[in-house]
Amino acid sequence: MKQILIYTNAHKDPKLAVTERVEEYLHFRGVKTTVCISDKKRAESMSAEITAEEACGAEMIIVLGGDGTVLKAAREARKLEIPIAGVNLGKVGYLTEIEPSRLEDSLSRFLDGDFFVESRMMLQGVILQTEKNGMPVTRQSLALNDVVISRYGGIRIMKLPIYVDGLFLHEYHADGIILTTPTGSTGYNLSAGGPLVEPGARSITLTPVCPHTLNQRSIVFSGDNRIELPIPEGAEHEAQTMELSFDGSDRYILHSGDQVTVGRSEEVTLFAKLEHTSFLDTLHKKLGENL
């Protein structure tokens, strides 16, 4: 391996001590590095992208931060098609396999080729809206973890019909709807009472947030299904306003008459992994309890 991109969360590594530690070891092993700093300005940018010029021919991305940093790096580097390895500078760290205490040993294994690459599915969302001038506009975005539609502004119950491959499923009355990949099942989906899904699966999980009924549960769909969410009028024909987010960062405001379609993306995220750890072993370690 001749070139590695280091993607650092400046908030998690404020003095860049860990970044310099990684650089120092890689340079010692004869590997060239490029450093990309994810600061507040970059984190808030919806159009940030790691270009081929910025990557300088990197064969791997070492991400320093927490799960949110990995998600940001995955979105920005999606066109590069190179694997990501996460160093856990956060708390739980489902997506960050490397602990700082064994940083050099882990880097050595990557450089020696003692790792494997795991592919994770992503979601693609297509947003159809009408501008104030009446012209239709289409926007697109990707998510490794989840696509979330939530209420915006005042505390009102959302009314949101769901269609699957053109067939009506159900009209949800809730505070929000989460559509998640298997990778994202341990995030907001889990907090909202959704199921944990094995990361290598190809599925889309729908979980309502605080549904205003006693009998609404999560539904797991095939990765080949397309979930359609038209934004209708609310109670008494009032206009509804909602917020749409991709991995918690790329955000859009939706209004009655807009429509969101979510399905599996053709693009994937590649992870460089050191251990063939089972999903259950990871859960036991991260959650700290028997399942």
How would you describe the overall organization of this protein?
The chain is α+β, with helices and mostly antiparallel strands and 291 residues long. The chain folds into two domains: 3-115 and 274-287, 3-Layer(aba) Sandwich (Rossmann fold), CATH 3.40.50.10330; 122-267, Probable inorganic polyphosphate/atp-NAD kinase, domain 2 (Tumour Suppressor Smad4), CATH 2.60.200. It has seven helices and 16 strands. It has helices spanning 17-28, 40-43, 52-55, 67-76, 103-111, 188-191, 279-287, and strands spanning 3-9, 32-38, 61-65, 84-88, 116-130, 136-143, 146-151, 158-164, 167-174, 176-180, 203-209, 219-222, 227-230, 241-246, 250-255, 259-273. The strands form three sheets. Strands 6-5-16-13-8-9 form a six-stranded antiparallel β-sheet. It has a six-stranded antiparallel β-sheet with strand order 12-11-10-7-14-15, with no helix packed on it. Strands 2-1-3-4 form a four-stranded parallel β-sheet, sandwiched between helices. Strand 8 (158-164) and strand 9 (167-174) form a beta hairpin. The longest helix is centred in the N-terminal third of the chain and has 12 residues, at 17-28. The model has no long low-confidence stretch (mean pLDDT 88).
